[in-house]
Amino acid sequence: MPQAQTLDRKESYKPIDNERRLHLIARFKDDVISKLAAAFVEVVRNEGWGKRDLANISGINETTISRILRGRRKNLTAETIALLARAMKKRPELSLVDIRPKGNKFQVNVSSEPFQPTAETSSRAAGNINVRQMS
Amino acid sequence: MDQMSLIEAAVRKGALHRYRIDDLEEGELEERMLWVRSEVRTFIANQLTPEQKATVSAALRRFIVGGHFTVITARCKHKEVQEVGDIRELKGSDLPFVELRFKPPPAHLRLFGRFIGRDRLFLTTSGMKTDNQRQLSIPKERKRCEGIFRACNFSDDWVPTRIEDSLSNATFV
Question: Given this model, what pLDDT does residue B172 score?
């Protein structure tokens, strides 16, 4: 196993302010809630279960489940997420995406071409993303 | 004039704004396009609490970077599912008219608009309902949306007639 390199310098950083704190928390909560909501739709479609069934399976109060899925629950704990996700036949995993700049050479932009509605709207839009090399 | 020229003309006049993310991170791309009316931009910027603003910004960011959305179509009959979607197609219109609904306490925030192509959304009006306020009128919001479309010389032909043609990476219920 390769040994971790020790830097002889310390990367500078900026302490978090309240606005950034709120935004970072909101982004993660938005990600979690949208995934739980999508899983709920799936479980309704595939198993025909509703919130009451999920409450029975997970042991979480039905009102709490409703508040979570509607984004009204203020504090979402790891325990609640684990139990609710499992009740919906999903294995929750935390994904930590590295956001250190990679020095990418390519940039993707949505095309500025006008939208021309056709019967094949979806197939046309599939080619709507241009990849161009940055100078 | 084509769609982009008309949109750019409206942006130049100040009638609408392109909502962009100024702090895209590694691995994030602007995969969808979002425009908002000035009043919607002002509403988000000035009339929300910091927590509400963060919630709305997070959802709009997810939209722009191409994240997954659950769309409740006008045909959906499952009451429990209707309450959890990110985007809801509102009933009573030939052309899909949609709302994004947020429920951070104490108010229900709603942003109304129309898709003007696949992965292109134009939010025309906004509303906030607290316990003391009356219900928001969907027909009124729809009328305002139609009026804004006319004022900007936008064509109804831009609006995909099926909500399913409006968004990629989405589940339609």
Answer: 94
Read off the pTM.
0.84
- A83 inside domain: yes
What is d(CA B40, CA B19) in angstroms, rounded to the nearest whole number? 10
Among A37, A102, A121, beta carbon nearest to B26:
A102
What is the rounded average pLDDT of the residues B141-153?
A: 92
| A22 is a domain residue | yes
Q: What was the ipTM of the complex prediction?
A: 0.91
Domain that holds residue A75: 18-87
Would A67 be classed as within a structural domain?
yes
Label residue B36 exposed, middle or buried (CB < 10 Å: 0-12, 13-18, 19+). Answer: buried
CA distance B157 to A82: 45
Min CA distance, B90 vs chain A (Å)? Answer: 18
- In this structure, the number of other CB atoms found within 10 A of the CB of residue B108 comes to 18
Residues 55-114 of A with CB under 8 A from B: 66, 69-72, 74, 97-102, 104, 108-110, 112-114
Report the pLDDT value the prediction gives residue A117, as an integer from 0 to 100: 47
Number of domains in chain A: 1
- Mean pLDDT of successive 10-residue stretches along chain A, which has 135 residues: 72 94 94 95 95 97 92 86 97 93 63 48 36 35
CATH number at residue A67: 1.10.260
